[in-house]
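The passage that follows is intended for readers who have already worked through the single-chain material. We present the inputs for a multi-component assembly, then the predicted structure in tokenized form, and finally a short commentary. You are encouraged to pause after the input and sketch how you expect the pieces to fit together before reading on.
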Amino acid sequence: MKGRIALGILIAAMALMPLLLDPRGYWIRVLAITLLFAAMAQAWNIVGGLANQISLGHAAFFGIGAYTSTVLLLKFGISPWLGMFAGGVLGGLAAFIIAIPTMRLQGHYFALATLAFGEVMRVIANVWTSLTGGPGGLSVPFTAPDFFAFSFKLLRPHAYIALAALVIVTAIFEGIRRSAMGYRLRAIRQNPAAAEVIGVDTTRVKLQAAVISGALTAMLGTLYAQVAVFFDPDTVFGIAGISIRIALIAILGGVGTAAGPILGAFFIIPLEEIMNDLLSSRAAGLSQLAFGVILIAVILWRPRGFITVFDQLWARWSRMRSP
Amino acid sequence: MTVLDVRAISRRFGGLQALSEVTFSVARGEIVGVIGPNGAGKTTLFSTLVGLIRPDSGSVTLDGKDLAGLKPHRVASLGMTKTFQNVALFAESTVLDNVLTAGLLHHGVSGARDEAVRCLERVGLKDVAQKRAGELSFPERARVELARALCTAPKVLLLDEVMAALNPAEMSEIMLLIRFLRDDGVTLLVVEHHMRAIMNICDRILVLNFGRLLADGTPEQVARDPRVIEAYLGHPKEGARR
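Having made your guess, compare it with the prediction:
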């Protein structure tokens, strides 16, 4: 009940935002990117939140999605809408392949193994010049505005597509959380041996979660490519820019909850932009320093994420209503 | 009729022979006690039966099916599960969710929830269903684990010291429950240190010592067996010298 009200309000607020922002402006781009990062953190949450496998390699799937749809568009003229699904299939496949050796790892070891995988993908994209354009990156060609070609004059449709993606990924996350798979993932997270003994196929459930998470992240990579218009291996396969940022958003917002990644994204992405806006002209690195200090303060204040602030407010409100 | 057949299973951990050619079989509906001094291999035996540990040699057959190489979740779906000696709950989840997860082996979420409520009623924990499992006392947690194991609808249930830390009243409740389960057709293997309890409920007792099966018989036979007395109390002559 509580969750449904909160999500309803969040979605309504997000649906209004694109109308309030200048459609040619800078902030509507920030909004679209924020929504995409919220969706990515939500996809990450399927593995990171429910199974508590902290992946620092989700850029691998994200980049696969961005490159797959863009290469298909450039070389064969295939609409990014179709390319998105091709990217999803490849992203899911990559997640499956990486999950087989890393699945048994826990904690830091899992994080480091996935981090390495993301880096391997970045290196491959840099050297496979004939396919990816190498370090020079790829540009999404501008064509006449057409929904089916995923081409728009202004950024407003992109913001709504990103919002729709966020809603869909959140629904998938929530569906998994409440399903048999959600129960099984929570059991695996807390005690894998006990989960096996009472009949949970731990290997299979972890693989399923990894593939769903990887495929969704890749599809979001396509949406990003269409908003960004230009990207290179270092941006879409970046450790700090993508992998760690996705994990950070979910952790700061509240791991394992549907609202957590949304809260986290709406805090981190705009904050970074504001810091750059205010401080980057003063001294080199000052904005990153301020950003880092704020993140540390927030983690110390709310180690279990922003979501706990709302939990507290809700508890107080409920107490006031029923004395 | 034999439901569980164990043939010459052995398992070595480095220099320690944890199980050595252990052979026995269990008939459907039997309650079999497994006793032995600490380190005798009781818990290793249970872990090997459910597939958490692979035996180096030997075979385990459940209802005519060879369990060689099967993972624990396959063994559970064939009808054998165990509880853990030190209680292995999903501590952050509610009591109901702990048990419900086991019910998913044979049901969807809502069917598993109904089944979990029934299992919790059975162990007398329905009132704490919505509490987090980690908040419960140790005896309550042991009962949650029992309910969770029951929720997989086992043919053979291995209970590893579920009566540890229980007071006499709680202990007799669990003993009663074990008898009820047997009447429902569940076969039980019970590791327990509490001798009076185990002599009381078991049809048969296996005695392990240093990974070997030392004795296999009725409680009366085992209690009189000089080798068992020696394993537990030491050699009579050594005792006499003191």
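Commentary: The domain at 2-321 of chain A is CATH 1.10.3470 (ABC transporter involved in vitamin B12 uptake, BtuC). The CA atoms of residues 193 and 202 of chain A lie 9 Å apart. How closely did your sketch match?
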